Amino acid sequence: MAAWSSRKLLRDVFLKRAVFNRIPTVRAFSSSPQNAPKIGYYSKKGRLLTGATLGLVIAGGAYVSTVDEATFCGWLFSATKLVNPFFALMDAEVAHRLAVSAAARCWVPREKRPDPPILGLEVWGRKFSNPVGLAAGFDKNAEAVDGLLGLGFGFVEVGSVTPVPQDGNPKPRMFRLRNEGAVINRCGFNSEGIVAVAKRLGAQHGKRKLDETSSTSTNSNNEVKHGGKAGPGILGVNLGKNKTSEDSAADYVQGVHTLSQFADYLVINVSSPNTPGLRMLQGRKQLKDLVKKVQAARDEMQWGEEGPPPLLVKIAPDLSKEDLEDIAAVALALHLDGLIISNTTISRPDPVKNNPLASETGGLSGKPLFNLSTNILKEMYILTRGRIPLIGCGGISSGEDAYQKVRAGATLVQLYTAFAYGGPALIPQIKAELAACLERDGFKSILDAVGADCR
């Protein structure tokens, strides 16, 4: 393919050169003698430039045609590092908006290299090529699912999605703490609403079904690549409530009725610090009542052989031992499918508390959250006795960080802030480092390492 592209490019350059060199000759015959030297000068200069361009095209095309797809893919991911400094100069939310738009238009590299086999796993009957996912909050409105999954994430979680569109809190509401590798945000569930998100996910779902039909008709073995409902990876949908809603359960039930058909798993977000009263839903009675209503709404819908999507709850890191015990008890009693640990923190651990931006209200994410969220993760793994899949989220910026989450009890892990800082190049790096950590310690698969520090 690369060789063909190079040949086509060379052909186009030759044609352009032929036309370019023919025009000055005609002009020279029709011009006055005093103008002839000037035209000849530009004609000579044009031929030199064309020749130099042609030489570069020939050399570059010949070289690219000899490079294998994996190497070329690696170059593309590495090249994204050159763009990071430009994003750093922008306002945090403007940069975020631009990044989502780029992914939505697939102006990002697409991972063509297979994941290390040691990272493959099956959770909830779904096959993940790797356990590294993108957390909710990046693609709030499901605009860029295909582009983001194409980056090589094992799964992508969109949202939080609210029933009714809402703008969220006033701007500015995102603040970078670059030296600490952290971000403070108080966005407040800014969302286009479930109708807009359902339209996007529905269109994507229909396109994938059409592609599957086409692939089946042309595949002699009648084998179709299996992924999630969104395509090559697994799609999670994170549900939120509107700020002014008086019936929280009704908001989540509405989200289930509208969006669950497009989701490989659903998340009840009761842990954002930026919606008043939301974290109160983590109390034992409140959480139990909420989960029962949402489960009932999901189970009353018609499902095929694959059954309903798993239901998870995302909790905060700012919880007491008693709070964690209550949540674990509810999760086990109601057979919850999983927990995400954790959301952002309202605390300001070292070294953030010395930063002038620490006084900004909102949730803190990034490196300073790592120890707090990992300790909560380990505690919850022990309390649930390893019976419930846990997703470790908070402060992961390397493969070693991801590995520590897995050893603390995480079956899957999620990134957000580190991805915002490091860009696409961080994804293959983390996967490679995670695989190396597993092999270093003698694990045969990622599942063998889950909860290793709790045994």
Report on the structure:
- There is one protein chain.
- This protein has 455 residues and is an alpha/beta fold.
- It has a single domain, classed as Aldolase class I (TIM Barrel), CATH 3.20.20.
- The protein contains 15 helices and 13 strands.
- An 8-stranded parallel β-barrel has the order 3-4-7-8-9-10-12-13, surrounded by 4 helices. Strands 5-6-11 form a 3-stranded antiparallel beta sheet, with no helix packed on it.
- Mean pLDDT is 86; it is low at 1-11, 13-39 and 222-226.
What key attributes describe this structure?
single chain, 13 strands, TIM Barrel, 15 helices, mitochondrion inner membrane, 455 residues, 8-stranded parallel beta barrel, globular, transmembrane helix, alpha/beta, 12% strand, dihydroorotate dehydrogenase activity
Topology diagram in text:
Layout: H1 2-30, H2 36-65, H3 69-79, H4 84-88, H5 92-104, E1 121-123, E2 126-128, E3 132-134, H6 145-150, E4 155-161, E5 174-177, E6 182-185, H7 194-218, E7 234-239, H8 248-259, E8 265-269, H9 284-299, E9 311-315, H10 321-333, E10 338-341, E11 363-366, H11 370-383, E12 390-393, H12 399-408, E13 412-415, H13 417-422, H14 426-440, H15 446-449
Parallel strand pairs: 3-4, 3-13, 4-7, 7-8, 8-9, 9-10, 10-12, 12-13
Antiparallel strand pairs: 1-2, 5-6, 6-11
Helix pairs in contact: 1-2, 8-9, 10-11, 11-12, 12-14
EC number: 1.3.5.2
Catalytic activity: (S)-dihydroorotate + a quinone = orotate + a quinol
GO biological process, one term: 'de novo' UMP biosynthetic process
